[in-house]
Specification:
- It is a single chain.
- The chain has about 500 residues and is α/β, with parallel strands linked by helices.
- It folds into two domains: about 10-165, Rossmann fold, CATH 3.40.50.10940; about 165-480, no CATH class.
- Helices cover about 35% and strands about 20% of the residues.
- The chain contains 16 helices and 18 strands.
- It has helices spanning about 20-40, 55-65, 80-90, 115-130, 145-165, 185-190, 200-210, 215-225, 235-255, 270-275, 280-290, 300-310, 325-330, 370-375, 435-445, 460-470, and strands at about 10-15, 45, 70-75, 95-100, 140, 165-170, 195-200, 260-265, 295, 315-325, 345-350, 360-365, 385-390, 395-405, 410-420, 430-435, 455, 475-480.
- A six-stranded antiparallel barrel has the order 10-11-16-15-14-17, surrounded by four helices. The chain has a five-stranded parallel beta sheet with strand order 2-1-3-4-5, with helices on both faces.
- Helix 2 runs parallel beside helix 3.
- The longest helix has 22 residues, at about 145-165.
- The radius of gyration is 25 Å and the shape is globular.
C-alpha cells in the first residue's frame, strides 16, 4: 500500500529577547513539552533558543539534524522579532507562531514575559517579510493551551507539506459540457504543485501495456475479497485490476521530484468504448489509499480531495452537489432529520467513486446514465464498473479550492453530516445536512461561480482546511453563515 500523505515531524523553537531572562523561555518551553508528552502530541524539542541572528543559524542546523519539517516558534517572553521572523523565512516548511501567557500573579516582576505584546511586534515583521505562517485564533496561552494549539497545527502542516510535494496527473481534455471544471492551472504552480497533463491515448496506451503483469491477478483477488457479496460482475475484475495496475505503475514511474501524486482523468464518453468498463471502482480503491482520482479531468477537484485526505488521514471523495430532497422523503424521515430544515438538505452523488469503507452495502454495479447514453438502456456491458451504495452516515466537510477564470484562487468549506436516510436512488449517494445550506448554495456556490463537484472529507475538518487555505494566501474563503449573518449581496428583505 502506498503512503501518499506526508508524515509531519514537528519541532518547537523557543525565542527570547535579550533584555528578558532566557531561562523564562527555556522553562516555559519545557512545560509545553511536558504537556505534549502527557497528551501524546509528537513534538521534537529544539535546544537552541533564538536571541540573535547567529542563534538562527544554530537553530536551522539543529532542525536539519533532527529532520524537522514543520516548526512552532514559541515566544516564551517578548521575543526578538527580527531573528524570530528570519528563522520563519529560512525554515523550509510550514511555521506556526504562538506565545506564552503569564502563569500567576505571584511572578509579575522578575518573571513577567510580555509575550502578549511580543506577538504584536512579531506580526509586524511577518508582514515586512511577506510570510504566511499559521497563527491560531487566540495565539497566547498556558502550556496546556499551547500544546493543544500545536496539536491543531499538525494536520494543517500536513496539508501544506502535501501540496508542496504534490504532482497532479491529468489524462484527457475536460468534457465540453463540464467546462465548469476547467480552470487555469497557473495558480497550481504558484502553490508549488506540479501538473503533468497527458492525452486519453496515453491512458489507453499504459492500460494496454499493463496487460499480463503478475500484479493483476493479486489485485483482482483483493477486489473480490473487498466486494464480497457485492461482486456482481466477477468476470470484470481482471480488466479493472489491469487498469489499477496501469495507474499505480504510471504514478511510480513519473513522480520524479515530487513525493505524492493524484489523478484527474477523462472517464466518459469515449473511455467506455475503448476500455470496456467505467473506471469508478478503481477510482474508489485509489482514494482509499490516499490517491484520489477525480472524475471528468477535474484538476482542482483532485487537489481539493487530496487536501481533505491530508487534513483527516482518511479517504475523501468527489461528489456532485446533485439534487434536492423531495418533500415526501423529508416528511417520512422526520425523526432522522436532527433539526435540519428542508433547505439544509441535498443529495451528494457520483457514479461510484467513493471508497467502500465510506459506504453502506457497496456493490459493483453499472452506470445507469451512461447505459442510457451508450447502450440504449439494454443489458449493461461497457458501462459496468461503478461502486454503488449509500454513503455512510456521519460527520462530513465539503470543501473546494478553485481557480477563477482570471487565475485567482478562492475556496469554500462547510461542515455537516450524512443523515441516516435512504436516498432511494443509484450511484454513490447520500442525504447531506448542512446548516443554512440554501443560503450557502446561493451566496457562495452560485455567487462565486463554483463548479458542481465538491470534495468530501469524512470528518469535521473545517478548522484545519480553513487555516491551511489561509496559509496559501487565499483571502476569499466562503462558509455557511448562520441565520442572522447576511452574505455580501444577500437581499435583506428575503
Amino acid at each position: 500500500m502506498m503512503r501518499n500523505v506526508p508524515h509531519v515531524s514537528l519541532g518547537i523553537v523557543a525565542v527570547s529577547r535579550d533584555c528578558f531572562p532566557i531561562e523564562l523561555s527555556r522553562t516555559r518551553r519545557r512545560r509545553v513539552m511536558a504537556e505534549c508528552r502527557s497528551k501524546r502530541i509528537p513534538v521534537v524539542e529544539i535546544e537552541t533558543i533564538v536571541e540573535t541572528e547567529k542563534d538562527v543559524l544554530r537553530a536551522l542546523a539543529e532542525l536539519r539534524t533532527k529532520k524537522i519539517n514543520a516548526l512552532v516558534l514559541f515566544l516564551g517572553n517578548f521575543g526578538p522579532e527580527g531573528p524570530t521572523t528570519l528563522l520563519a523565512r529560512e525554515f523550509d516548511g510550514p511555521v506556526m507562531f504562538v506565545a506564552a501567557a503569564e502563569e500567576t500573579q505571584k511572578n509579575l516582576i522578575q518573571s513577567r514575559g510580555d509575550a502578549f505584546c511580543g506577538m504584536l511586534n512579531a506580526s509586524y515583521n511577518i508582514g515586512l517579510r511577506k510570510l504566511r505562517p499559521y497563527i491560531p485564533e487566540y495565539p497566547v496561552g498556558t502550556a496546556a493551551e499551547v500544546a493543544a494549539m500545536m496539536a491543531d497545527f499538525i494536520p494543517i502542516a500536513r496539508v501544506r507539506l502535501g501540496l508542496k510535494g504534490l504532482k497532479i496527473f491529468g489524462f484527457g481534455p475536460r468534457p465540453q459540457d463540464f467546462l465548469a471544471c476547467n480552470a487555469p492551472i497557473k495558480p497550481l504552480y504558484d502553490l508549488g504543485v506540479e501538473v503533468m497533463e497527458n492525452s486519453e491515448l496515453d491512458l489507453y496506451d499504459i492500460f494496454l501495456k499493463a496487460k499480463g503483469r503478475p500484479a493483476i491477478k493479486s489485485v483482482a483477488r483483493e477486489m473480490a475479497k473487498e466486494l464480497g457479496s457485492g461482486n456482481s460482475y466477477p468476470e470484470l475484475l481482471e480488466k479493472l485490476a489491469q487498469y489499477e495496475v496501469a495507474l499505480t505503475g504510471f504514478m511510480e514511474a513519473n513522480l520524479g521530484a515530487s513525493s505524492y501524486g493524484v489523478f484527474a482523468d477523462k472517464c466518459w464518453p469515449a473511455f467506455e468504448h475503448f476500455f470496456g468498463f467505467v473506471p469508478c471502482y478503481v477510482n474508489a480503491r485509489m482514494a482509499a489509499r490516499g490517491i484520489p482520482v477525480a472524475c471528468e479531468v477535474d484538476i482542482y477537484g483532485a487537489l481539493s480531495e487530496y487536501m481533505a485526505t491530508c487534513a483527516t488521514e482518511l479517504p475523501a471523495t468527489l461528489l456532485d452537489i446533485n439534487n434536492t430532497v423531495p418533500d415526501d422523503m423529508v416528511k417520512a424521515a422526520k425523526p432522522k432529520l436532527k433539526g435540519y430544515a428542508p433547505r439544509d438538505l441535498f443529495m451528494g452523488f457520483h457514479c461510484g467513486n467513493t471508497a467502500s469503507g465510506c459506504l453502506v452495502g457497496g456493490a459493483l454495479k453499472f452506470q445507469l446514465i451512461m447505459n442510457r447514453l451508450m447502450e440504449d438502456g439494454k443489458k449493461p456491458d461497457i458501462t459496468r464498473g461503478t461502486l454503488e451504495g449509500r454513503i455512510r452516515p456521519g460527520r462530513i466537510t465539503i470543501f473546494r479550492l478553485q481557480s477563477t477564470a482570471a487565475a485567482e484562487l478562492r475556496s469554500y468549506v462547510a461542515e455537516g453530516e450524512v443523515l441516516d436516510i435512504d436516498p432511494k436512488s443509484f450511484g454513490s449517494i447520500g442525504v447531506f445536512g448542512i446548516r443554512e445550506m440554501g443560503r450557502f448554495y446561493r451566496h457562495v456556490l452560485i455567487e462565486k461561480r463554483f463548479p458542481h463537484h465538491t470534495a468530501v472529507a469524512f470528518a469535521h475538518a473545517g478548522k484545519t482546511l480553513f487555516a491551511a487555505v489561509r496559509m496559501l494566501g487565499v483571502e476569499d474563503i466562503g462558509f455557511n453563515r448562520p441565520a442572522g449573518s447576511p452574505y455580501p449581496g444577500e437581499n435583506p428583505f428575503g
